[in-house]
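Continuing the series of single-chain predictions for the mutant panel. This is the parent chain; the variants come on the following pages.
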Amino acid sequence: MISRVTQQTVQKSTLANLQLNLSRMSDLQGRLSGGKLITKPSDDPGGTASALQLRASQRAAEQVARNVDNGIGWLGTVDSALQTSLDSLRRARDLTVQGANGSMSAQARDAIAVEIEGIRSAMLSEANTSFLGRSVFAGTSNTGVAFAPDYTHQGAPGSSVERRISSDATVRVDVDGSAVYGQGPWDPVTATGSVFGLLDQIAADLRAGLPISDHIAHLDTRRDSMLGELGAVGSRYGRLETVQQGVQKTIMDLKGQVSAIEDIDLAETMVELQSQEVAYQAALGATARVLQPSLLDFLR
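Parent structure:
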């Protein structure tokens, strides 16, 4: 059976095809101007789902990167404070050895005592070092300083500042100030207390003309504690640096995967748009011929 084709049928079909060509060209122009292959979920449901999953992973990796950067800042501050404190403690030990010489004059001993007190003040300042407004030797305490003027440790007992570096791992980024510097005034009977109190005791004994050679071993004990904490800080710092390098690579890889799904191939899209423009111009020509006859043409 032969279908009846009228002029109206041809016109409708031609206009529908013209509209389809125009829609395709509009889509290509939108992709080219926006640079995105997927402008709405219906463009590629599977690709949209994959892109959403990749973006979620990317956000998690970026959060880890921020945690690591913050942790490195904490540990870098701790490391600097410990290094400076160790230098001060070594100087204090040298002065104590010098002051243990029983033949020194009272004036010389007093001069050494003054310098030791200066070292004590400098070490106390280092012990109260903060990073972004938080004391690095006071755990989760918000007191602002790790040690009060009486050398009492202000940190929250048993607390620590952690930074998450993966879904199941964290790294400690602070140090227990009481473990590094001790706490409280120096007790000569039990030989316990803070390094600040110990330095005060050495200065007082120097002025009183008392022997101070026994204090050298106490300074060595506190130095060993500082060195142990410094080694632990260095280990954690190195771990964070390793994680930092890995997470930066992960972020770049994820960005590349998202781009491969969402972004257009510029050269390919331009060629496709040019081809579509040619097709649209041809469709316009065909439509002009179809729509050309009028009532006057038939009356002729």
